[in-house]
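for the writeup, i need someone to sanity check this before i put it in the appendix. the sequnce is what the collaborator sent (i think, or maybe the updated version? ugh). structure was predicted straight from it, no edits. if anything looks off just tell me and ill rerun, i have time this weekend
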Amino acid sequence: MELRHLRYFVCVAEEMHFGRAAKRLGISQPPLSQQIRAMEEEMGVRLFDRTSRRVRLTEAGALFLPEAQATLRQADYALQTARRAGRGETGRLRIGFSTSVAFVPHVMDRLAEFRRRNPLVALQLDDIPRNEQLVRLDRGEIDIGIVRVFETLELPTGFHATCLQRDGMALAMRRDHPLALQAANPTLADLRGEALIMYGSINGAGFNEHLVAHCEAAGFHPHISVEASSLAALLGLTAAGFGVSLLTAPLSRLNLDTLVFRSMDVAFESELLLVRSCNPSPATQAFCNDLIGQTAQAVEPAT
């Protein structure tokens, strides 16, 4: 028995007239009558009592009707569920992101809009260091990584990256620090002799080495006074006067009474990359399409 046979039966049962049911179904009456008879023969039970003047359900037909209607509703629900999944409107989306991503309005706005439009997608967001994101992507533990890099990123096989935006640098310091009081923006040379607070090797992977290389190219080795394990620790130590911190520009959106953020004139910037599988799930692809838009620049995966 096919679903169309159930639809034929339900339509006739609702109309109680083969002619009206045939018109509603968009078929002629004789084939409809034949399909109902074939259905009754297959089931081995009569569903309708027919006379020249009226049609009515048998007891078996009356009991069969709500079950047929429920089956059709479930079939329609299953079809819509599959279609929503295919459009990325249902399912699960696991996103790893670098700390500074929370301060990038474009990304946060798109995430909020995606969540509003796709309430059936289960979203999981985790603040994860860059290298760990790549490992989790490769293991299939997250679907998307949003990472900040200062140099070419070597991607796992089968993954693709897109540059969402490029950002400069900002220097964070106590509001009474001399560099906070000078008129000009600080430069890399101003870091000579300054106590620097930086992330440890896990959260600072890539950036720490990048900064040291640029300082040495400028003729000095930076004095790293403290390594912080988190953004909160880094900002707390900076606010307490343990040193200054070099951060990506989006973090200057933080509004802290004890700190001043100044744009940093340096010869390098960071890239915010969205990394995902070359064969993403529909939900992943839908979010990527929404976030990337028309302006992002593709970065080819490493070979």
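The chain is about 40% helix and 25% strand. The CA atoms of residues 13 and 210 lie 75 Å apart.
thx in advance!!
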